[in-house]
Amino acid sequence: MRPLTRRLLTAVALTASLGVALAGCSKKDSVTADDMTLGNANAKVTVIEYASATCSHCARWNADVYPAFKAKYVDTGKVNYVYREILTAPAEVAAASFLMARCAGKDKYFQVVDSVYRSQEEMFTTGQFREVLVRIAQSAGMDEAKFNACVSDEKALKAINSRVEKYSKEQSIQGTPTFVVNGKKVGGPEGGEVSLAQLDAAIAEASK
Questions:
Q1: Strands across the sheet with 184-186, in order?
Q2: What is the model's pLDDT at position 159?
Q3: Can you give the pTM of this predicted structure?
Q4: Where are the alpha helices (DSSP H) in 35-143?
Q5: Tell me, what DSSP letter sits at residue 70?
Q6: Considering Cα of 168, then 171, then 175, then 179, what sign does the dihedral take?
Q7: How many angstroms separate the CA atoms of 186 and 192, rounded?
Q8: Cis link prior to 189 (omega < 30° from 0)?
């Protein structure tokens, strides 16, 4: 892989070394301006997904379960869906993907992340990470110069590191994806893909 930028690799290394705190998840998370959200902000139920752009399980959930989940709960305003970024190997690619998605704008954020998920196999098979990401950036209206500026933005990189550290302290995120419904994890303690039926049950319980 051709390095995205030296600064990116250095900054992401800080996140890779972060320990995972053993904090519980008994209280409902507060949604902040840094969060990427869809659905009804005032909904009684908040579903948080902790995921990485380079996580194959996240990509599979995105393809197999998310469309039905979105149609049933997000598009109908029944839940507030929150997507929180975690960095998994190769961490520099995950970070670049998220920085690029945020640069594209909130209205295109989820579209860009979806494109990265759909391009995972190509990236991992060919090793052409940067080339694929640049192509996705261009499809979202960015040129290569803007892409380069996005992935080398030190302030944005530090912000990602800070968010990952914060999530690790507030939740015991041991794997991706991890789903939290009104403060309660769905599935096992180490995260992993969950079915729509599992989310149905958790959302129904939280709606009482």
A1: 36-39, 79-85, 45-51, 178-181, 184-186
A2: 95
A3: 0.86
A4: 56-64, 66-69, 91-104, 106-118, 120-126, 129-139
A5: I
A6: negative
A7: 9
A8: no
Distance CA 98, CA 207 (A): 31
The C-alpha atoms of residue 130 and residue 147 are separated, in whole angstroms, by 10
Tokens of 164: 């990952």
Domains defined along the chain, listed by start: 6-16+35-206 (3.40.30.10)
Which tokens hold the place of 68?
Answer: 């039905």
Distance CA 191, CA 96 (A): 23
pLDDT in the model for residue 17: 40
pLDDT of residue 27: 44
Longest dimension (CA), the chain: 51
Task: Give the phi and the psi of residue 16 in degrees, each rounded to 5.
Answer: -60, -25
Tell me the residue length of the chain.
Answer: 208
